[in-house]
Write a structure and sequence with these properties.
With about 500 residues, the protein is mainly alpha-helical. It has one domain. Helix content is about 75%, strand content about 0%. It contains 17 helices and 2 strands. The chain is globular and about 70 Å long.
């Protein structure tokens, strides 16, 4: 039997299992994981809102941009690492995949140290940009942000380990990881926030403890039985920093970091725009100018993160499938995965849109909304208008997954720039400031931005698929066997691209 056909990998299901079943197997746990992950922020906001309904959600909204930035680096490095591992496994290069996993872990450790230092020194200054005139909100937001950034290592390593494991086709361990972390967070939130009276500090401590516990789950599984995995995940004596590995990770990872950082930029600028929209509200016996725009945006962002999580889970589940089959030069399976994922994502988002339109007031009450008719009406309007973006965004999320799976992270980045900065902010600013519709103009900018991005980049996505497989066919034609592709392996004399000068 040939070397190619005799090679048995646990990850081979990515190239052989029927697509429908494979997407369900891969994305089902990822979707559950992402839904559970969304509970981290939502639960924090709900209990903070119960503890201080006037200031709580607003304080967490001010902290959100910096949190998004930290998450952006963690997710970006992990996506770059996982995408590269999937392609290497599809090409039969297990040793290179092992070095890639170890390099990803090293980069995650470095970035967590960087953010610990930055978080300690700049968190309070960052919050001061928004809330220096409101000492209560300033203290709540500053304390929450400082703790979360200084202890981000749990989140960084958890995300990296989960992506590495997902890249090999195992979605169960990441699911368990995130469920455990969320359960710990949910249990600790009411205890630390309300019972112990720690407020925002309690919410932050509950979050980081949940992240650290979640980080320990994949570590324990890997240490218990390394034979479950196709690669060496933890550092070995063979580990060396190599330029091409770091470059390969950053080829997808850096654009992904920029792409996710755009969310932080968008949130920061949006808070400045929305900060000008206030309404008088009675708080503690005094009339206060309540930042209704910031409050409504904060709640929408929390809720839409929960609504989007099934699509993001589908994104996570499909990247390894598309990456593997791209590496194996199986265009038919690649295209079927892409089409099926779009149909699933769009169908789900129709359901989410209906929920947001049917019961916005009920959703607002989850966050202990102030007893003010103007505030409730504005919050409901925000949820209804913003939610229209769900339909085009569903297709965009899967399109971004495709770009990342094939190593075209720059296109994914540009798509996000168009969505969240190039169109959303200028249109939202213009409509809210220079038309009579006010805040409604900012909310309407969300579906406008998503539609423009999709119209521009979906044709680019189709052209990209055609181009990359044409190049594959010319470079390395592969013959299918009974509808399936054997896992390709390197020729014994073929040079690995990572055989080069070490960085260290």
């Amino acid at each position: 039997m040939s070397k190619e056909l005799s090679q048995e990998l646990k990850s081979k299901k990515l190239g052989n299992m029927p697509i429908g079943k494979l997407i369900l197997t891969m994305s089902g746990p990822a979707i559950l994981s992402m839904l559970v992950q969304a509970l981290y922020n939502i639960v924090d906001s709900i209990f903070i809102g119960m503890y201080d309904p006037i200031n709580g959600v607003t304080a967490l909204s001010y902290a959100m941009p910096m949190q998004l930035l930290v998450n952006a680096f963690g997710i970006g490095l992990a996506v770059g690492t996982g995408s590269m591992i999937s392609r290497l496994l599809g090409e039969g290069r297990n040793e290179d995949a092992s070095l890639t996993a170890q390099t990803g872990l090293f980069l995650a450790l470095v970035m967590s140290a960087v953010f610990a230092i930055c978080g300690y020194f700049i968190s309070r200054a960052f919050i001061g940009l928004y809330a220096k005139n409101d000492p209560v909100v300033y203290e709540m937001a500053s304390n929450y942000l400082t703790i979360c950034t200084c202890c981000s290592f749990g989140m960084m390593l958890e995300i990296m380990l989960n992506r590495i494991i997902q890249s090999m086709g195992n979605m169960i361990i990441p699911m368990i990881t995130q469920i455990v972390g969320a359960v710990v967070n949910i249990i600790l939130d009411p205890i630390l926030i309300s019972v112990a009276g720690m407020g925002a500090v309690g919410a932050a401590v509950a979050t980081i403890i949940g992240q650290i516990v979640a980080m320990c789950v994949p570590i324990a599984v890997i240490l218990k039985d390394k034979t479950k995995f196709d690669i060496e995940i933890f550092f070995t004596r063979k580990f060396r920093l190599k330029k091409k590995i770091i470059g390969g990770i950053l080829q997808v990872g850096l654009p992904t970091i920029v792409m996710n950082s755009i969310g932080s930029i968008m949130y920061t600028v949006a808070n400045f725009i929305l900060g000008g929209f206030t309404t008088p509200i009675l708080a503690n016996g005094e009339t206060k100018d309540f930042a209704v725009g910031v409050w409504a945006f904060g709640i929408y962002f929390k809720l839409q993160s929960f609504a989007f999580m099934p699509c993001f889970g589908l994104n996570q589940g499909c990247i390894p499938i598309m990456g593997y089959n791209y590496g194996a030069n199986n265009k038919a399976r690649f295209n079927k995965t892409f089409r099926t994922a779009i149909i699933i994502a769009f169908s789900y988002m129709v359901f989410a849109l209906i929920i947001f339109h049917a019961m916005p007031e009920i959703l607002l009450k989850l966050f202990s909304a102030p007893d003010n008719a103007v505030v409730i009406a504005e919050g409901a309007k925000a949820l209804r208008l913003c939610a229209v973006c769900f339909l085009p965004a569903a297709i965009s999320v899967i399109t971004i997954a495709m770009f990342n799976a094939v190593g075209h992270g720059t296109k994914a980045m540009l798509m996000s720039i168009i969505r969240q900065i190039g169109v959303l902010l200028p249109v939202g600013f213009a409509l809210s400031k220079y038309t009579s519709i006010g805040l409604a103009g900012f909310w309407a900018a969300f579906p406008i931005a998503e539609t423009v991005a999709l119209v521009i980049f979906f044709p680019i996505a189709l052209a990209t698929i055609k181009k990359i497989f044409l190049k594959k066919d010319l470079e390395n034609p592969v013959v299918e066997l009974d509808g399936h592709l054997p896992t390709p392996a390197l020729d014994s004399e073929q040079e690995t691209p990572f055989e080069e000068e070490n960085i260290a």
